[in-house]
Design brief:
- By secondary structure, the protein is mostly helical.
- The chain folds into 2 domains: 94 residues, Orthogonal Bundle (Rna Polymerase Sigma Factor, Chain: A), CATH 1.10.1740; 68 residues, Arc Repressor Mutant, subunit A (Orthogonal Bundle).
- It is 65% helix and 0% strand.
- It is elongated, with a radius of gyration of 20 Å.
Length: 185
């Protein structure tokens, strides 16, 4: 994030804050979707985070730490939204920033569905660590700082999440039909 833009926004410059929103808004929505797995909840969390960022921006001590600070606010908004329930609608699972899985849209749909089912089995805490580490690309020490947890906790959450995801994917894998006795393979 541009330090000068953040510094200007801290003084109440609405035009500068609009620039901040343009610079990070889509990224915050993608991260929120990754954590919540619901387009509408993610949009609500991102909007709430942006409102909180605007309100708390004058309190930010180091403009160079804006990204980590904004992710922390976003994750808290995601935690608040995760408690809300929505009626399932077909469009809720679609990430608006992703196109079809392949050119014709059919190649890896089954893989994406399996991954989605597995990801939904993770807790919000586990999803937050996975998304910040794998989607955003933050090192685990920074993930821990963003989430306000010890580094060891971030490591163990990631390990448990990946293990749980592997187990979920393996349990959803198609099983071969049993071959009746006496029939050659």
């Amino acid at each position: 994030m541009d330090r000068q833009l953040v510094t200007r926004a801290q003084t109440g410059d609405e035009e500068a804050f609009t620039g901040v929103v343009y610079a990070c808004g889509d990224r915050l929505r993608r991260v929120a979707f990754g954590i919540l797995r619901d387009r509408q909840l993610a949009e609500d969390a991102a909007q709430q985070a942006l409102l909180s960022i605007w309100q708390k921006l004058p309190l930010l001590r180091d403009p160079d730490c804006f990204d980590a600070w904004a992710y922390r606010i976003l994750v808290r908004a995601c935690y608040a939204e995760s408690g809300r329930t929505r009626a399932w609608m077909p469009g809720n699972l679609e990430d608006p920033d992703r196109g079809p899985a392949t050119r014709d849209g059919t190649g890896t749909i089954d893989d994406r569905d399996e991954l989605e089912r597995g990801f939904r089995r993770l807790s919000v805490d586990q999803r937050a660590v996975v998304v910040l580490h794998h989607l955003v690309g933050l090192p685990l020490d920074e993930v821990a700082a963003v989430l306000g947890i010890p580094a060891g906790t971030a490591h163990s959450r990631l390990d448990r999440a990946m293990s749980r995801l592997r187990i979920a994917l393996a349990s959803d894998a198609p099983r071969p039909w049993p071959v009746p006795q006496g029939v050659a393979r």
